[in-house]
Each structure stands twice: as structure tokens, then as C-alpha cells.
Amino acid sequence: MDIKDAVKALMALGHESRLEVYRLLVQKGPGGLPAGELARLTKNSPSSLSFHLKELVNAGLLDARQEGRFVFYSARYAAMTGLLSYLTENCCNGNPCIPLSSDLCADDLSCTPTPDAITMTNKVYNVLFLCTHNASRSIMAEALLNTMGHGRFKAYSAGSMPGQGVNRFALEKAKSLGYDTSTLRSKSWDEFAAPDAPQMDFIITVCDNAAGEVCPIWPGHPISAHWGFEDPAAAIGTDEQKRVVFDKIFRQISTRISLFANMPIDKLEKAAIHRELTAIGSHPVSA
């Protein structure tokens, strides 16, 4: 999301009735609601609601679909997470800066975390990033999600044909996050298909080669998606020229990681989560 899209979304939400409609649809999930039910719940007249819905659709925040005689409206979660990502881009220099629910109550004895907050902080999602050699893109994705995931994720990485070792420029980018790189190594994806391996909730390929290869049978049937990125290790030139390419790919991965980390995973069904992950993989990345 760029600044023009962010301003358009914020302007659309900057009205009491539209914000009420939008929050209601976010709560209702991917199925959404028909216009008539929205009018009843929000106490808007049909003409007024039609105007507000049009503004939210034009801002890219809602989807509209025809089902028989009714038009259903639903929140575009990729757009919502895109806006959140834009607003929090480079927050605290890439380090987690949003406190977990247990921290929110540290200085207030009367504060009780909500059930949703407890659920989100108790559930840690395991995510495996795959690339052919597990040397650059998957390594940076692992470091980024473990750093930006607000404690909700445990990220790993692996490859179908490891052995080249971790690229030194990828290590530089991981270190720039303050990430402990002592455990980073190039490893086979077979390690994560073993019976005693951590059970993955998500498998994300970050290079086109790995996406086209026959993967192992993952225990637990995790949700899978493909996010393609240019291979920065293929860059030629001086070290500084190579760093420029690694910086670009690192930013691109960071953008998609931020979208993923802000998804309301606990509120979505598996099919909806898969659609959102796929949409993130199609999210435009800056050059």
C-alpha cells in the first residue's frame, strides 16, 4: 500500500457511520452480510447506507458480491492488514513494539485481558519458509517473522537442496534486526517432515523453484502459500551493489511479513486464511 491508498482508506473510515459498518463487517468474517441486514444492524437508511458502502468499496476496504437477489458485503482483510502495515512500517526499527496482552495489564491490577487477547497470545503459530538452498530469502523471512511477529509466531526455514551455507549478506540483514544469527544454518526440509519435528501451521515458499518441487508430506496438513521473490544471491557486481539488491528483497519480504503478522488468524476459517495468504503473495512489492 502506498501513501495515496492509505489516505483514501483513512478518509473513507473517517466517518462515524462508515467506521461502524466497516468494524461490523470485520467482525462478521469473510462471509459478510447483505445490505439489508447491515441497514438493520447499523440503523442506517437504505440510501445513506448505499452511499457509505460505495465509499468503502471505492477505497478498496470492502468486497461486494451478488448472491441471488441480495448483494453481500465483506471486509477485505488484505487491505486492512495492508493499511496496518503501512501505518506501522519500520515501527521501532523493525523490532516488536506492540506489547502482548499480559504486558498491557502489568501496571493496572484492575485490568483483565480479553478472551480474544488471551487466545492470540497463548497460540503460537509455527511457520516454515522454504527456498531451494535455504541460503538467502528463506533465512531473511525466518529472521523477520521471529522479530516482527509480536510473539505470535515461531518461524523456521529450510530448503530442498541445502548445502551452500547461509549467504553472508542475508546474515548481515538478519543481524541488522538485532536477531541472534548463531542458530541460522542451511538445512534440508526433510528435517521438518520427521515425526519428532515441530508441527507446522503454515508452509510458505519464497522462491519459484521450491514452489514447483514435490514437497515432503507435512504432519498436520499446514496451510501453504507461495510468495515469490527475486533471488538476491544471483546479483553480480561489487559487495555494495549486492547489498543494494539484498536491501531491496529484504524490504519486500518485510512488507509481506508485516501483512501476515497482522492478520486476524484466530478469527478466520482455514479457507479464508489460505485466501488471505495467497493475496499477500500477490501484494505488489516495491522495486
Describe the structure.
One of its GO terms (molecular function) is DNA-binding transcription factor activity. Residues 1-95 form the HTH arsR-type domain. Keywords: Arsenical resistance. With 287 residues, the chain is α/β, with parallel strands linked by helices. It has 2 domains: 3-75, Orthogonal Bundle (Arc Repressor Mutant, subunit A); 121-281, Response regulator (Rossmann fold, 3-Layer(aba) Sandwich). It has 12 helices and 7 strands. The strands form 2 sheets. A 4-stranded parallel β-sheet has the order 5-4-6-7. A 3-stranded antiparallel β-sheet has the order 1-3-2. The two termini are 13 Å apart. Residues 94-121 have low confidence and may be disordered.
Give a summary of the structure in a few sentences.
The chain has 287 residues and is of the alpha/beta class.
